[in-house]
Amino acid sequence: MPGPLRILLSQQAAGRLAGEIDRLLAGRPHVLLAPDTPGLDADIAFVSREVTGLSTKHELQPATRAFYDAMERAPSLRWVHVHSAGADRPVYVRLRQRGVQVTTSSGANAAVVAQSALAGLLALARHLPQLWQAQREARWASLIATGQPRDLEGQHAVLIGWGPIGQHLGRLLQALGLRVTVVRQQDRPAGPGLAVVTVDRLHEALPTADWLLLACPLTERTRGLIDAAALALLPAHARIVNVARGEVVDETALIAALQQNRLDGAFLDVFAHEPLPADSPLWRLPNVIATPHSAGFSDGNAARVERMFLDNLRRWCAGEALHNLASD
Fold this sequence. Notes:
Layout: E1 5-8, H1 11-25, E2 30-33, E3 44-47, H2 49-52, H3 62-73, E4 79-82, H4 90-97, E5 101-103, H5 110-125, H6 128-136, H7 143-146, E6 156-160, H8 164-175, E7 179-184, E8 195-198, H9 202-205, E9 211-214, H10 228-233, E10 239-242, H11 251-259, E11 265-268, E12 288-290, H12 301-318
Parallel strand pairs: 1-2, 1-3, 3-4, 4-5, 6-7, 6-9, 7-8, 9-10, 10-11, 11-12
Helix pairs in contact: 1-12, 5-8
C-alpha cells in the first residue's frame, strides 16, 4: 500500500494552505514537510514567494538554498510548482533534466507586469527622468525649453513575446494609440489591428520601431536575441523596455548604445546579473530607469499563485495534465 503523499513547502505556505489541501485531497493520506525535516523525501514541492525571498537567480540567500537543496536531495520528487512565470533558474533546469515536472505560475502577475512596463514606457515618453533630476536640483526645467515629448499616438511598438504578459501589454499599447507589431515563434494572427512577424524576421521590424518591448521567456532561442546587431538596427530615438529576462539582451552592447546616444532610453527591470552590480553604468545613465526585478510585485499575487498550485494539485491527484508545464 502506498504511503502518504509528501508535499514540501514553506512553513508559511503550510499554515495558509493546510486546510485547502485537506479538503482537496478528501481523506487521502498526506504530510506537509518543511525543508529541514530529517531524512526528507517528497513527491511534490511548492516554491512559494517567501521561499525565494530576496534571493535572485544568481545569488541565493541561505534559506532559499536550503529549500533548493531539499528538492534536489528528494529522490521521489516528481513535480514542482513555482511562484514565478519562468522556470529558468538553474535548480529548475537541473530538476527537469532528471525528469521532474516543473509548472509555473504564468499569468498570475501578468497584468501587474504589463502595468509596470507601461509605467516605464510612459515615464520615458514624458521625459520624467530628466524632470525628476531637475526636481532633485530644485531647478525649474520646463519641457518647452528642454524639448517637448513626442506624441505617443501613432508610434510603433515592437513587442517580443505573446504570452499572458505580452497580451496584456499589447492591449494597453493599443489603447494608447500605438501601432503594435508582435514578435512570436509562430506565424499566427495575434488579434485585431496587430501585425505579426516571427522571431527569425525580427530584424525586419526594428528599423521602424519607436519602442522595443521584451516580454518573452528566457529560452535558448531568446538568449542574446537583442544583440549588438539588433540594437544597431533601431533608430536613435528608440527606447527599450525589458520586463522579460536580462539575458535576452546583450547588456554590454546595450550600455554602449545608451552611452553613445544610439538609443534614447531604457526601462530595465531585469539584468544579466542580479542584483545589478553597484559599478554598473546602468545605475547612473540619465536616460535609464533601473528597477530591482520588481515589475511583477503586487499584494494579490500570492493568492493567485496558490490557486494555480491547488488547481494543479487536483489535476495531479486525478491523473490529468498539469497547467503551465515548463518546456524548453
